[in-house]
Queue: 4 jobs
Job 1
Amino acid sequence: MTTSGAKRRWLPWLLLGLWGCGSAWAQPAVQGLGYWKPFVISADDDPAVARAQRVFDTLLRAWDGTRVEPSLYVVKSSRGPWAASLADGNILLSRAAIDTTLALDGERADHLLAFVLAHELVHQRADDLWHHKFFRLVGSQNPQQQQALLRGLELSGQALPDLERREAQADHDGLILMASVGYDPFVVVDGGDFFTRWVESVWAAPCERQNPAWQGAGACAQARTRATRSRAQLEAVATQATLFRLGAQAFAAGHWQAARRDFSAYGREFPSRAVHANIGLTYLAEALDIRDRLSEAGALSGPRFFFPLLLELHPEATPLQPRGRLRGNAEERKRLRQYAERAAQSFERAVRLEPQHRGSYLLLGLAYLLADNAPMVRGVLEGKYIPRFGSDVPTRLLLAMVQAQGGDLSGAARGFEQILTGLEASPPGVGPWPADLLIYTAFHNAAALAQARGDDSRSDELWQRAARLAQRDGQALLFRLAVEQLRPGTLASRPPAWAPSIHGARLGDRVQASVSSSAFWLEGEALSIYRFANGARWVVDADGRLVNAWQSGGQARLGDGLVLGDDADRPLKVLGPPSRRIELVSGAYLAYDALGLAIRLENNRISGWFLYHPDG
């Protein structure tokens, strides 16, 4: 092919760009953020913009690059739906893009928005912006200027295949990214071709037009190609996304080894900071189980501190015991230390992959704290975290716990009181831990220290303060946990009259379905994942039995009391307090062991639920 022929073939792809086409891409592409600042729409003024920002913030949970996290700006534009990554690390999204996703699938628009934004984030992470800048420059010119810009470029070799490869890789990795934080990649293709529908919305015309001279014909052809490729990619993505979701579900259910198996299988193909952190959490959770057994047997001294991995309903404080009366199990102590050290190894990997992620350092500090290695805790916090991020409530909280473990109970008590007074003066704001988790941990550990010092009245006073603070900030779960500590048994569970099910089936049922499915293997076992139009998902074994099931979107009810989109405190009113609350990169979960049911929360709303076997 001649160079000029290569140019003619390349231009349609350039003009299609990532999410625009033709002139719809040209205007926003060539301008930087400075040009668009006057057109930025505040999330405070527009609920749809706030919705897009929430989706973007959720995706950033899995941001593993060493760059500073990108920022999202939604802008007014007359050029239709588009999204763009800028070389300065910002991402632009047209307001029309949000309207388009709402029009295409209003109930699951968040999932479509997640894919559009994840695609741009992947380009940022992969440092693909060198060609973005040039392509946008070309697309902004008239045909004569385009030819002049392209003249002399060697396009007949690997340029076009490399561009297509980068776009295909961004589609693939974008699907993985959105799945890793809880969004459903199947929404992109199921129920119609998203890529073609996006292009049709730009041109306000159907892609079925037969006139090859129509200016949108090239964009429609590219969209159909991407849709075909995306369907093929989804077979691979479905396997990995399912493994990550199964790992999150197993962790929420308290099945640490199963969760580690699933996260490890996912991480072999797609290693990331989030995966290593979650693997480390499984080891840390096992170490905490051993610590609790030793504490209950009176084999450990010191306050029984709460570790902010999951909010349990009854994490009782254990009084301080003299060291001479210890009756520990040497083997259990050895296993506790081994699990804590394995957790530390995973968190160290997470830190190396993403040195700017604050939460990984705190988890590393918790692992060393559980291993009773005070010098390493101080080394992580005072030597790495504070010089990089500054002192904050989580670091002061962990250092107070180190003080107590070292025997300075009075100093630790003063440290806790300073923290609590600060929390009561003003909300903690945005930080590495959710606000309710941070507040609960601070009050619980201050109360545990008071009990260890034999001051039960001080413990009750602290929980009363926690309850008042929860009322002030509207933290329903935190309020109920504080009341339960003051009056145990007050918030007894209220099992409903209905049995939880997903699309009419319970775990262990033999099921059949004539819907879209994909096959995958897990440790030599053949499994199939079935997906329903209402957002329900089944995983079925080779014998046709339901082994996993979850609901992620659509219009669905859980029994006669819960609906997708309900406020986060609604499960507490309908089902009572959960067995535990768990925070993962994919969201927060309320687990009800008596029902074998876990409810996923996102942005203070119910975003889904899944079934599990409480006993594994």
Job 2
Amino acid sequence: MNSHEIENNVKNIFKNFSKENFLYDLLLAYGISKTSITRLKNGDFNLSKAEGEVLYKKKVFFREEETNKLLSSVDAVSKEERILKHKPRFAIVTDYKTLVAKDLKLGKNLDIPIEELPKYFSFFLPLAGSEVYHSSNDNEADRNAAYKMAQLYDLLINENHDIYNSKESVHNLNIFLSRLLFCFFAEDTEIFEEESIFTNTLVQHTAENGNDTHLFLNRLFERLNTDSAKSFPAHLSGFPYVNGGLFRDKIDSPVFTAKARKILVELGELDWKDINPDIFGSMIQAVVIPEYRSDLGMHYTSVPNIQKLIKPLFLDELYEAFEKHQNNAAQLRKLIARIANIKFFDPACGSGNFLIITYKELRVLEIKIIQQLISLEKIPLFTDAFTTSISLNQFYGIELDDFAHEMAILSLWLAEHQMNKVFDERLEGYGKSKPILPLKQAGKIVQGNAARIDWKCVCPIGNYDEVYIVGNPPYSGARMQDGIQKADMDFVFHSFKKYRDLDYISIWFYKAKKYIEGYNAKSAFVSTNSVCQGQQVALLWPNIIGNEVEIAFAHLSFKWTNNAKGNAGVTVIILGLRNKSIEPKYIYTDKLQKEVKNINRPLALNDIHIC
């Protein structure tokens, strides 16, 4: 459900306004299932014993209130232990003329005439899970953490002069930073059972001058990789076994100074539960790439841009299947099984943005299908009938940069944990996620050069597989390529004429065509529109578009924006490839979708030809 649909739903509340049903109509407007609303009305989900109150765990507290007590009442609610222990996101009080509400997580207030609620519908968007895809241009939690990590990184580099002496030592530093990030996130998001256990133990068991911090971290990381706590001191035995490969290899932590230890403690004091793994990986990647430092996070790909690619490639069709079969439980279960077997592959995955957003979108769709199944099959409450069928093992990637590769693996773990919490909250009483620890393999992310690696060795494909290739590969125009990239072009296109006039991204289009040909697979890449211009059209596209493969959809030129302070400033298109089909072809702009008979080989100064 998008924000426009929610806005219309809220407007409809006032077309046939009912005081008795106002709260229930409001929750329905934000996508809470009819089954859950019925349970709330019947008292199963209402945790308040007071007459006239509704307390819906992790969602909302509601009470009708006298006009002159609205403000004082909502303030009192925000401090009342019997209410707060159930962690409602919102407190709402109303006399049905005025509505006063408080976001108990962010501390924001709303005080409006009740009929103006449609204007302020966005205040309650967290009820619809909008924070799963928070798209602020200045995510404070991510930025604070990234800047602190940059400070720590610089201090460690200065103190450990040999840290960049070899490829192995650089890799070890990348692993070390990934381990720190995991510990910070784990202690704030209930992966570690005891809140702040990492930071508190660090403070209590290391000297302020920092000279034993590396020894503490070495011993802690060893504990996190050991199934039994018997051989460890009491202050480490409270940490769990993590596994997953993150702590498997023994590496020596860098030496700390007093200042570096202080920054480490300050990092632990940040609120890591608000970190977005889909943006944070890119921001932390900027920590170790000096030329990105001027704007940490600038190279992050925004959620709306990623959706422009994944929606026409596969997500729209999955939602259409959901809508088509929403009253057929057997077909809905088949749809879940289908989703659980699809492979998603990004052969230039960076720190994992496309894979992470794809994963989140699929988990959200799965929740919607399960909610519909609960309603259709009248499944009893508190049966824990459902667990997620979607696995990180469905996600494949190739990344050249070592640190980005490590961040992609870590970010997928963090995304899984966040979505498990969403799953448990949305399906409370009907589903329960499996514990994230010990960690399982976080996708199949390979470090290497995607131009040289056989993609089918990374993401195997067979006759019964369904595979979608996604991503935003490196561009590098024909005159901007470095020596390695030129060698890659020689390796892939040695039999082509004048291939040195092609953009570097041409490699990905050509290899995608070779991968999907003859299989149940599709691909879509973001690309500069230069591949649709001039001599590149005749050089590239006859080798891709032919009797077997065609362009299935295209998104016309738009600015490639991001979630940081500025924009990437690149004009791009999106091109989707598939095997020849009688299915419709579409052209997209930011606001329109147009069905067309054919999409020609791209040839235009600005956009592509349509016929």
Job 3
Amino acid sequence: MSVNDSAHHDNFAWNRQVYHRLKLALSLGLRRQLFLAVCDDLQLRNQVAARLHSTLSYPVGQVLYQPQDGQETSSTSAYPRLVTLRLNLNEPNPVAQINQWLANYPPPIVGASKDNPGRPLPVPTFQIVGVEQLTKQPVAVQRLFLHYLRLCEEAFSSQESSGFLESTVLLWISRPWLSAIQQSAPQFWRWRTGIFSFAGEPTPAKRNVNYPERVANSRNLDFGNLDGTSVNESTIEAPAKAPSPTGNGTLPVETPAKRAVLEIPPPPPGFTKQESQLPESSAKPSETISPPSLSSLSHISQELTELVLATINAKVAQEEDENWQPQPILLAIEELHIKQAAKEDLAAAYHQLGNLYRLRIEQGHSTLENLMVAILAYQEAIAYDETSPQLPDILNDLGTLYWMLYRTPPNVEAGQNYIEQGIEFYHLALKMISPQTHPETYARVQNNLGTAFGDLARFSNPAENWQQAVLAYTQALAHRTVEMDSLKYAACQNNLGTAYWHLGQYNQPVVHLKKAIAAYNQAIAHYNADQEPLKYGMIQNNIGTAYWNLAQYEQPADNLQQAIDVYCEALKYRTAANVPSACAATQNNLATAYWHLANLPQTTKERKQKLLKLSIIAYEEAIALAHSLNGIALSFDLFAAHNNLGLAHYQLVTDSSFNGDKPTRSHHLEISLDQHLQALNGLSKQPEAYQTTFAYIVKTIRAFHNELGIHGQNLALSKVPGQLLPEILAKL
């Protein structure tokens, strides 16, 4: 395999593409692969290398070894699949460094039993950083490095097995070193498997390497918005049966709302609160320690140290928090390493570091650096003590942290990987606790697991993953009673209702929608509308959507009326003053329910007119609120709402029971045309929706002619932008 990448004018898109190629290559788990990653920008290099370390070091299934049925329990500590080594500038021999690491930490044997000798875990992948620092070393050291690379030919050609040959190696280099290796170590060069070149400006040599750049400032490789603390709503496609064609046009009247709004439950409810005690150390919290002193740490992962430095450098003066001091903890960990302290003490210290960053994340500082420090610290804690009684809580926290990382990637592939890793951590936590002895923790992890499966359903196998979410929430509710915590019980019932709603979109809709309604009703029974008005209104909105959806399958009149009643109840608490975006979403849903009820065959003509007018009022409220929000994200399709409002006005005036005079008819048709034109303006990049809306415009202009004669048609054409007239006239 050969991967040869070159620079690209769009650094952001190019680097993102190269990163995912590199990550995929490392994830394959092949042996004897030699990758060269070329990057002149140290800030970008640190970002990518740290991200690879966080994502691949302790992947799913290998954080803890779980024996198969009938096998003895292994006491093997967590074993990484990717190890990051900083090149030893005194003896720059990467092969020797890899072999030494493997001698110190040989792959453990797993799966051993009385009848089975077991097997060793795979040799990790090694990424080596720090080659760029050779430029500041004497020429003799630089030549020694190239000499060691040339000696690699002997290892590659040898028939003897070695840890180095069993592994995959990723060597980070700058472009000048790429040329030097190609010219001075041709044997090493020929053994390369692939080259991954990142684009970016070279880091000036005068930059003080003791102060790494803040990772999040880099635009060369964007990992997205990290604010993953809440998910209020999600727009979902709702299957709807279109009513019989009405009106005088040639096109059937389209169902006004292609989309209904259902709220997704909040993210996992937070992190566990247990705190571990930091072993005594000479570093006192009150001491002022300059960040550069951390650069001299030799026993702690360089990536972890650099990430901590990045979080320190990123702090704004007015955000200083005296209680947030990671430096003393790092120095205490270094001291424990030097003293060769017990593994339990080291685990407790790393756990303390993870807790420090976890609490900072809980306070709203969910930056990429903070998330990665917490993850790396917790993973180190697991590696040093897998028998800690706090291990299930650490695993739960790791699952939640990976879930939060899922909120950051800019692409579907990375998001799915993070969710799957979070799910695996939740599964590991569940294997270590009994619901009988730890019901509260067990219920918390099951609830989090359900939320993660629901998010995974967005990427693959939605029916299967929503079924898994239902099972997880059901397990949580089996051990989370009203007496334990009524609000958590209600929140979990809401989550279960949401999972049933989604499952109903794929199979057994009537059964699952009724179960969704039952779960939502269980949830709302434990919320006080005066004390929790927003949550109360949210669940009422969910109930309304479930009834609206159920009306597509059975008892449409009764279920639509139920939906209308519940939406109206929700709007008592989801007001324009309190939550305008949520109010707009429920108004849009209410308008849709009115429209559907108006178009049922059994609805009388008089009631149909009344319901259409109510639909128009609700759509107008939704649209007006949406436009007042100035760019705030909406959970419903605003252009669809414009179209729906236009259709409601059109249907009102073209219905045979409408008894308004010509000015009134003209007024409704003008509004209908204006709404369709507003929708058309926003649909230029959606060809199918654009053509549908264009057909509505033609149909409305024909209605002008049918209702008001040639004068009415001319009035309509005078309101149409000139560039649309040739195509419209051809269709009239």
Job 4
Amino acid sequence: MKKKGVAHVVAVFVLCFLWGLGFLPVTASASNGAPGVWNPGKEIISLTLDVRSGDITDTFQDALNMARKDKSHAYEITVPAGTYKVSEGLHIFSNTKLNMEGVTIRFTAKEGNILVTGTSIINSLKDTSYSKVTGYGGYENIYINKGTWVANPKNGSSVMRFFHGRNIVLDGMTVDNCGGRHQVEVCALDGFYVKGCTFKNYSRKKSGSSKFEALQLDIPCADSVYKGVHEDGTMMRNVYVEGCTFSKVPRGVGTHTQLVGSYHENVYIRNNTFTNVAEEAIVALNYYNCEISGNRIENCGAGVLVQTMKKNSSTVYAFTEDVKYKKAKNFYSDLKTRVVNNTITVKYTKESDEVQGVKIYGRKLSKAEKGAKGKKIPARDYYAGGVVVSGNIIQTAGHGMHLMDAKKCVITNNQITGKGFNKKDPRVKQKKYDGIFLEKASTSNSISNNNIKSAVRNGIFVYEKSSVKDLSNNVIASSGKYGIGIGNKSKSTGAFTKNTINKSKSSGIFISESSTVKSIKENTITSSGGHGIGLWKKCKVTGAIEKNIITKSGDKGISLSTGCNVASIVNNKITTAKKNGIFIYNKSKAKKIKGNSIKGTKKPAIKK
């Protein structure tokens, strides 16, 4: 009882103090909650700003400072509905909630952030400068509820910045316009929740290789990356971006800074809408245990990019500028990342690096390369492994999916349609877009049960020392070249089985350039412009070409050329091939040819 009485006296004193400063009446209550809600764990003092209109910078900051001074309470600050100006950056501290329903804040300053955690000044309150705050120990329990924050397009800074803290929540707010690199940028947070927010009307201001996410998850590793904060390399963890809208921005949500061996962990990007985003909607660079699901991506330059190494090593950090930084040594072979049940429509834009629905990108460094600040990035295979891409509906003016140095990934139950190809896109002119494209030693991947239509080049293309362990039950129609192609020393360790391929302009299945397939079984191939199944240039099928149904081939039903070898060609049904049913020539061999049904060919059914 004594402890309650003391707390009550303190609360009454604080209430009277606030009233005396011109704030409207306040109340106090206890609070306790779950992550993602305001959970200060201490008694709450509520107050409403006594404002009319005009510039409210001083009044607003005075209220924030009250929360800053009073370490015994949490503060819930309500701004009355209306439109107001803020002429200097506002500084917010721990255990503070802003209620901004019906409020529009117009930022008039030509530099600085409209809202930022902490302060860079050490003053009589003995605050720790935000350049000294480390880990997740800076600021906690901050909740921004609703409100429209309108940036000054002449201001070169990001609109909001939060860092080195815990349990930061942005709920239902809108950020409009931006003159800087990002609308909201954060780093070193454990528990960052963005729900029902809108990010809009931010045009890329600069050209070149710089990337401009509306919502950026960053790393405190260099002053040029995240200015003014302690650069200890603390990564983001427990991030939720849900039910948000990104419209007319350069990039949606993601990361473009990399610290070798360090990962953002437990990142969930779910049920958001991205419209008219110039580049990628989502960029997951070194994310571990990540879920990207239920998002609607519409008329964007690219969809989802999952990445474990950047294309240019000069932008990768091998260290931080804090001398106490302990270099991370985590290199996850399994990213535990899921890209599932998204609806994606992508189009050509001049800003996008590559038009694609989903891209999984790793890169092997055969020798050490210079990274940022001239420090070496160690030689190793920085491959992207263990990504599941499933249940997505993709309409693409480029690749449906593109894998580069991606290993042990699962691509299943996706619908991919090529549509809206732009003649200004050089890759369209060169016919270099596929439904699903694997290259750069993308190995041990599974591709099954996908439906692929109208790819510019191939429905599925496995290339450049890549491999699949399962390629089955895919339905592929109207490809510009092959239904399924495998080439340049690639291989399949499992069977090509039960795929349905219709109207490929060239061969239905084509194996080339010293590639190896275990077997080709039970596929249905109809109306190919070239061969039904073709092998060329020292390729092997170590098992059988067996029980395939091949109808209306524009060339041969099955063709082996230039030193190819097959264990057996048995029990296939070949109907109406324009030339031969089975054609083996130019030093190629099939050890056994037996039980094939061949009808309607204009040249000999079998020719060796």
